[in-house]
Amino acid sequence: PIVLGIESSCDETGVGLVRNGRLLGHALASSMDEHARFGGVVPEIAARAHTHALRPVIRQALDAAGLRLADVGAVAVTTGPGLSGALQVGLAGARTLAYALGVPLYGVHHLAGHVAADTLGHGPLPDPCVVLIVSGGHTSLLLVRDLARDPILHLGDTLDDAAGECFDKVARAFGLPYPGGPAIDRAARAGDPRAVAFPRPLPGSYDFSFSGLKTAAARWAEGHAGRELPVADGAASLQEAVADVLTRKAVAACREHGVGTLVVVGGVAANSRVRSLAEERCRADGIELRVPPLGLCTDNGAMIAAVGDLLVRAGAEPAPLDVSIDPSAPLEYAALHPVASL
Ligand code: ATP
Ligand code: MG
Ligand code: FE
């Protein structure tokens, strides 16, 4: 069957259509611009934007795939984690579609979606693989087996801020626009990555910590009060520190677990230095590196459809129509079917 996937956990309204591991078409709307002047996503604004965007984005995705609603054989939706109002809008839409079409509904863990995004570009994931998820809300090292069947093992997590959050907040301190990740990436091109010696916290652990790095970068910027801030050097040095920590731990995890494939996913996987350093270090260790195509790194509906498609093909139990959202769902299984609370 053709699986229609809906993503609405944060500020992106995404819809994708997947069949048998193949992406048929997808569409995306973002309320990012509406949050820019607040310096971060405002939950109420995001939820409202989803209510406006969902129907047209479903239409655009179907058009992109050359399909009609009646062709859809299953619906998958992010049920957590994420902003509760935003998640509710996606789930309401997905539930309505599944009911009206008489097709099964699957609740999907947002992070499993980020992992599955890579299958759309590069085919099935090898079992096992190490996955580094780096986004605005998460920084985790995972040991993934069969995404549709097996529990996902956490090797490490951030103890404070996520890597993307660190980029976003430091960008603000550097006077760069929101979202900060892409802005730092651009600014870094003209900078010297060795200009500032930013810290590499928690060596020897698979956990991460970025709040010290964030503070160090803010202090460095403050130290230039009255003088021109060498933004490019600061951006390049920060990016180098983040990329160094992320890739060093990911490669060490592969080595320790005898895993031959590293998958780097999430919005920060779009970072050019994270990509190039991961490539360099994986090559040196004979590890295959997989990173989803740029457009599928950040939140999108295709990745949710990809998980739905894996679940359908694995014969997983669909969610009940009254499945509820779980805004703080821990990552254990790709299918997220919390028992309805009422
Ligand atoms: P989550 O998936 O954890 O709920 P999210 O929805 O914010 O969080 P994504 O959409 O996957 O995550 O990623 C957004 C994050 O990625 C932002 O923090 C953004 O700054 C960062 N990002 C995007 N492009 C780049 C880049 N080129 N370099 C660094 N960071 C980037
Ligand atoms: Mg986002
Ligand atoms: Fe995300």
From TrEMBL:
Manner of cofactor binding, per the entry note: Binds 1 Fe(2+) ion per subunit.
Top-level enzyme category: transferase
EC numbers on record: 2.3.1.234
Annotated residues for binding of substrate: I133, V134, S135, G136, G137, D168, G181, D185, N271
UniProt subcellular location: Cytoplasm
Keyword Acyltransferase (UniProt): yes
Residues involved in Fe cation binding: H110, H114, D299
Entry's Gene Ontology BP terms: tRNA threonylcarbamoyladenosine modification
Keyword Iron: yes
Catalysed conversion reaction: L-threonylcarbamoyladenylate + adenosine(37) in tRNA = N(6)-L-threonylcarbamoyladenosine(37) in tRNA + AMP + H(+)
Gene Ontology CC terms, in alphabetical order: cytoplasm
GO MF: iron ion binding; tRNA N(6)-L-threonylcarbamoyladenine synthase activity
Domain Gcp-like intervals: 23-305
Keywords on record: Acyltransferase, Cytoplasm, Iron, Metal-binding, Transferase, tRNA processing
CDD domains, sorted: ASKHA_NBD_TsaD_bac
Record InterPro entries: ATPase_NBD, Gcp-like_dom, KAE1/TsaD, Peptidase_M22_CS, TsaD
Co-factor(s): Fe(2+)
Reported function: Required for the formation of a threonylcarbamoyl group on adenosine at position 37 (t(6)A37) in tRNAs that read codons beginning with adenine. Is involved in the transfer of the threonylcarbamoyl moiety of threonylcarbamoyl-AMP (TC-AMP) to the N6 group of A37, together with TsaE and TsaB. TsaD likely plays a direct catalytic role in this reaction.
Family label: Belongs to the KAE1 / TsaD family.
Protein name: tRNA N6-adenosine threonylcarbamoyltransferase
Gene from which the chain derives: tsaD
